[in-house]
Amino acid sequence: MEVRNLKTWPLFVVLTVCMAVSSVSCSSKSGSTSSRPTIDKIEKRGTLLIGTTGDYRPLSFREADGTYWGFGIDVANEIASRMGVDTEFIQTSWPTLTADILSEPQLFDFAIGGITITDERRKTMLMSDGYLANGKTILCRAADAERFKFLADIDRPEVRVMVNPGGLNEKFAHENLTHADISVHPRNEEIPSLIAQGDADVMITEITEAPYYVQADSRLAAPLLDRPFSHAEIGVLMRKGQDDLLLLINDIICQMKSDGTLRRLHDKYGLIYSY
To answer: Of 34, 36, 109, 164, whose Cβ has the fewest other Cβ atoms within 10 Å?
Structure first.
C-alpha cells in the first residue's frame, strides 16, 4: 500500500518537547555485544517478528487486507533491513501488550508503534532509546475548541471523556480526570469519529496521533497540541533477556538519527523532528 504523504499537515503538530541532540557515537553492528543469542536466532530464522496494535494512525495501522503502514512500521522495516532479514507483523492490542511481550512461547521479537517509554514498563521489560517525541493531548469537536483550554476544563462531571482500553491514555484519564465522565471504547481508531458525531466530548490521545484526525475530519480539533499534558518519548518494547537485540536496535536508532533516515521519516508523516 502506498502511504499518503502527510508532509502538508499543519505545523501546529508542535512538539515543544524537543529532546537534547545526542552526542553519543553509534557503535558498529558487530561490536555491540560479543554474545548474540537473540540476533543469531533472528538471523537464522530470516525474519524479524514484530508485534504492533495496528490501530494508531499515523504510527501503526492495519488495513482491511492485512497491510500495515505507519511511522513505527517504517522504523521496524528499517531495523530489519539493516539486520539483513525480512519482517512479519503480528497484531497485538493495548490491553494485551505486556502479556503478549512476556508470553510463552514467545509471540514476537519486539513491539513497536506508539509505545511510550516509561519506568513502569522498564521494571518488567526492555525499552529502546526514543525515536519520536510525544505527549498527551485531546481531540474534541471543532465547535468546542474554545471550551477546553486547560486540564481543569475537561475534569468536570458534564464532560464525557472517551479512551481506548489498557494503555497509557486510559491510565492518564483515570489518574487526572477524577470528576469527568470517562468511558472506554474498545477500538482506538473509531473514537475520533465518535467524538465528531457527539457520542463523547473529548478523546485523550497523543500529539503524534491527534493531527492525523484533525487533518482527516474538519469536525475535529486539537486545541492543546502546543501545550501537551505530558512529555515523553516513544520506543521499541521487548522482553528482558534480549540485551543483544536491545543494543543492536539502539545502535540502529542512533545510526538513523546520524544519517538522516529518521528525519526523513518524520518529514514523511508530518512530524516535527526533535533530535
So the answer is: 34
* Residue whose grid cell is 521496524: 76
Write the burial class of residue 65 (CB in 10 Å: 0-12 exposed, 13-18 middle, 19+ buried).
exposed
Q: What does the DSSP 8-state code read for residue 18?
A: P
- Taken in order of first residue, the domains within the chain and their CATH numbers are 37-133+232-268 (3.40.190.10), 136-221 (3.40.190.10)
132-134 and 232-234 beta bridge pairing: antiparallel
Q: pLDDT digits over 22-50, tens only?
A: 444 686 544 445 789 999 999 999 999 99
Cis, bond preceding 228 (omega within 30 deg of 0): no
pLDDT at 180 over 50: yes
The pLDDT, as a whole number, for residue 27 is 67
H-helix or E-strand spanning residue 82: helix 71-83
Cell match 528499517: residue? 78
Whether 162 contacts 186, CB under 8 Å: no
Residues 241-253: pLDDT tens digits? 999 999 999 999 9
H or E stretch covering 111:
strand 110-111
Radius of gyration of the chain (CA): 19
CB atoms inside a 10 Å sphere around CB 141: 18
Helices and strands, counts by H and E, the chain: 10, 15
